[in-house]
Amino acid sequence: MPRIFRSPVVAFAAFAVFALAIACGSEDVAAPTPVINVPKAEPTPSPWAIDAIVDPTNFGWPRVLQIGDDRITIDAPPERLHTLSLGHDEIVVALVGAEGLVGIGSFTANETYSNVASEVGDLPKVKRDAEEVVSLNPDLVIASKFTKQDIVDAISGTGIQVVRTALESSGEGHETNIRTLAYMLGAEDRAEDLIAQIQSRIEFVKSNAANAGSPTKPGVLSIAKFSDSISAAGGDSTEGGIIEQAGGENIAATSGIDGHETVSFESIIAMNPDVIVITQPDPGATDLADLLKGEPALANVPAIANDKVMLGDPRYFTTLSHWNVRGIEDLAAVLFPEQFTGVTFGGFE
Amino acid sequence: MSGCGVLLVVLMVIAVSVGPVDLTPRDSMTGLLEAVGIGDSSATVTEQLVIERIRLPRILLAMLVGAALGISGAAMQSLFRNPLADPGIIGVSSGGALGAVIAISIGAQAASGLFLPLFSFAGAFAATALVYGIASSGGRTSMATLLLAGVAVSSFLGAIVSGIITFTSNSDIQREIIFWLAGGFDSAGWEDVQISFPLIFAGVAVVVANSRELNLLMLGDDEAASLGVRTTATRIIILAGATLATGTAVAFSGTIAFVGLVVPHMLRLVMGPDNRVLLPLSALGGAAFMLGADTIARTLVTPAEIRVGIITAFIGAPFFLFLLARNRARAEAL
Question: Which uninterrupted H or E stretch holds B105?
Answer without folding.
Answer: helix B92-105
